[in-house]
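Budget justification note: compute hours in this period were largely spent on complex prediction jobs such as the one shown. Inputs:
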Amino acid sequence: MNYSKQLKALVTLGLVAALGTAPALSQDAPEVQKGFEVAARSDRSDVGFGDSRVSAKMVLRNAAGQESVRELSFRTLEKVSEEVGDKSLVIFDSPRDVEGTALLSHAQILEPDDQWLFLPALKRVKRISSANKSGPFVGSEFAFEDFTTTELGKFTYKYLREETVDGVKMDVLERIPQYENSGYTKQIAWIDQDVFQARKLEFYDRKGDLLKTLTLKDYQNYDGVWRAQTLSMVNHQNGKTTDLVYGAYEFKTGLAENDFVKGVLERVR
Amino acid sequence: MHFCLPRVALAAVLVFACSSARPALAGELELGGVLGLEGRAFPEKPALPGQLKHFQTSATLEGDVRWENEARTVQAVFVPFVRFDAQDEERSHGDLREAYVRYIGDEFDLLVGLGKVFWGVMESRHLIDIINQDDGLEDIDGEDKLGQPMVKLSLFQDWGQLDLFVMSGFRERAFPGIDGRLRGALLVDDDDVLFESPARHGHIDLAARYSNYFGDVDMSLSVFHGTSREPRLALNATGTALRPIYDQITQVGLAVQYTSDATLWKLEAMGRDGYRDAFVAVSGGVEYTLYQIAGSDWDLGLLTEFHYDGRESFSFADPRLAQGLIPFETPAPLTPFDEDLFFGARLAANDMQDTQILGGAVIDVNDGSTSLFIEAQRRLGQDWTAELEGRFFANVNSQNALAGFKGDGFVTLRLARHF
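Corresponding output:
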């Protein structure tokens, strides 16, 4: 559920190659193979992070400049293998009227994710449909799929070009969603050649028009694991923006499989 | 004004106070709450003497105190609630919605105190949900609950989750007083209560629930043995009021949801024994959501549910009662859901203010009695919410359990400040 993580999940060829799909890949066009390799290298850069906890502030702004703030906590458990996705929890701390609302996701590769929502007023846990990929996440400019499509295998990749942005050499890739119900026809990703992190992402809508641009800033190095501290999403079609500003990440906090079952949703607040 | 807190609840408060008041215990303490102001309007004149006329105003205050130790293994939660009603003294009431301490182990957690638990998957009727007593003074939708004293052990294993409950300190259901709308002609006398168990409030109730999911199917099986949360009602000795009767019952419940793309298929079923005759009840339904309708950010959810309840029926309008041909005592607790269809729609704007509208109708397929509702809510700024709720009754048959509510359709506007 951690965004910079999923951006890195643009990637992760390493394990796929190890699983024996490399021969098939080698028959792909060179730009497809290179695109996948670049994506995989970026994704591989945080393998073994284990689990993480982080709080974030989400600032929503409409075209008139009106602001609304949400505070969220994210907990993530690294996937055990490439056949499944990460498990994650998003917990709402504010606005106060939705405090304690929590979303549990078990990400899959091409199958729909398993998701449960906890409604604190009723103490109700509800399994929800994950078909709503392209809808707005809590009124923000982030779509659900921007948060949940963290897995490398959810896309096909194509290497486009090398580009220097502000003196930093970048690889530019195209990735196309392979899962159902995506609101995007393609995404373009800029990944630096220095520490292999995603720096910018463009989202193209179902008509093929540029919809949104995400900028990932203020990367911090947590003992070799890189995380962007600020994510800025700009919607070019409606003029709205959403900033997601993360606090300090905690890694290897002792979270385990049992912390990501629906029965814990009532106590995660 | 009455505060209906059993002694067990007070014990839980003390446990909480001891665990949170010591500054030596480092950890995270969070304070919050909601202050609500509510105006209710009944367009129709009251049908019964003593009932409030057209307008009802009240204020609510709910506190929320949470503490967690640094190791994140112990939590304490304290949620007091109080309502002051300007027109209806009986509706002014207080309760501890939650007051518990929880210990979180590796593969289990243990909760001691007043807890709140929800079981089920349906939207228009909460059939198998039984742990907590309804707060009958708040609303008639069965979604406001009294805190239940309990020891709850939850086990998290590869084979699923098992919750075990031991409960005592039974909470009686509160009924509207003379001023209240949404009641029958005969008042229910809260001071004249009959319990099947000689232990009365002290009876030890037991419950267990197993839940798991298999791919797209979530299921749970539950069993409850103890004091019925729903009372039967009987005419009192002087023939002036009704007295609640709390029987010992056993309920077995099943809830299943199959989540297939944008469609949720739902089923709840239960069997219950302990009143005059054992019976089964089944609810089934579908929820289908159209996402981003017409290219907007709005989602439209369509809901339909069917309810069947096999319990023995009873009507206060039955002419045989006046002739003394049948006893003036309900053979089972009353329900309006004997054979009913629900149609509803939920609109969600997915905007900054989380604007939502839910509306629907429950129709009795045998006599056509219909209950309609609409609930709309929106955040105002960062800390306020506004809620509009309307409930109306149409075509109500005099023998239907809704008969007493016939002219009590209402609109409520609620403003709340969250802090």
